[in-house]
Amino acid sequence: MLRKLLKYEFAATGRYLLPLLCLLLVMAAAAGLSIRILSAGQAGRAAAALAAIFVVLFFLSVMALAAVTVVLIVYRFYRNLLCSEGYLMHTLPVSVHQLICSKLIAAVCWMTVTSVFIYGCLFGVAFRAEIWAQVLSELHVLFERLSLAYGIGAAELVSVVLELCVLLLLGSMSSCLLFYASLAIGHSLPRHKLLASLGVFLGFGLLSQVLTMLLAVVTGYSLRGFVSVLNLKALAQFGHALLIGGIALTAVYCVVGFKQIHRSASCFFVFSGAGRSMFSF
């Protein structure tokens, strides 16, 4: 049943995001061509103005895609599970865990896809092919210097990349669950549900920042060590602490969201039972 929920969720969100992704690719191609024309210095006044317009439209499309992705993720959860559609969703032969997991999986996938598209288009527009070749060659030289100075091999580099990917995945999951938990807690109040959800979101965000600072103090991490890249041990400890903290925050948001949605489902079922008893007369 989870597969059917995922299919429905991807179809419902894809009809909004896929056109925006295609628009971003078109705008990226137009902006890249416009930058090449402007850098050549041989374009006329009208061509230069048109090229500048395409560049502005590209950056607007980037911001629109990022904003629509976040708003759509939040809106889908709010509308399907906390509004009137929640009655229909909670009467399906699925558990609350499956409902939330379908939303979470689809949200993380779309956040990953949009992030890849946005950063790929930004780098593709900003740099030409010869610049990319130069960057790759400089990265190779940097890796050789790190290997000689600190003994960092291929295995350590792969582990760092994998840990960074896990951190990014946990960050996406934690962000989505933060939205879900905030909406669920705010919706449990009798009045001003959206305003309460915003307050809970800000409170959870502040708590996350405080915990991150505490982790930095506990692990002995400092910005000076990061800038100079001399204290790699402290930097690795901070990365591991972030990984553990991300897992803990994700678990907390997950538990809070599941409990509140369970309560909402119980309210829907009580309401439906009362409605049936009224119509039975």
The coarse silhouette is globular
- List low-pLDDT spans: 223-230, 268-281
User: Could you spell the SSE succession in H and E letters?
Assistant: HHHHHHHHH
Strand content: under 5%
Largest sheet, described in full? none
**Structural class by secondary-structure content:** mainly alpha
- Alpha-carbon distance between the two ends: 36 Å
Give structural notes.
By secondary structure, the chain is an all-alpha fold. 89% of the residues lie in helices and 0% in strands. It is built from nine helices and no strands. Helix 2 (45-82) packs antiparallel against helix 4 (96-126), helix 6 (154-187) packs antiparallel against helix 7 (193-218) and helix 7 (193-218) runs antiparallel to helix 9. The radius of gyration is 24 Å and the shape is globular. 21% of the residues are buried.
Summarize the structure.
By secondary structure, the chain is mainly α. It is built from 9 helices and no strands.
Label this structure with key terms:
281 residues; mainly alpha; 9 helices; 89% helix; globular; disordered C terminus
Ordered list of secondary-structure elements with their pairings:
Blueprint: H1 2-40, H2 45-82, H3 85-90, H4 96-126, H5 129-150, H6 154-187, H7 193-218, H8 223-228, H9 232-280
Helix pairs in contact: 1-2, 1-4, 2-4, 2-6, 4-6, 6-7, 6-9, 7-9
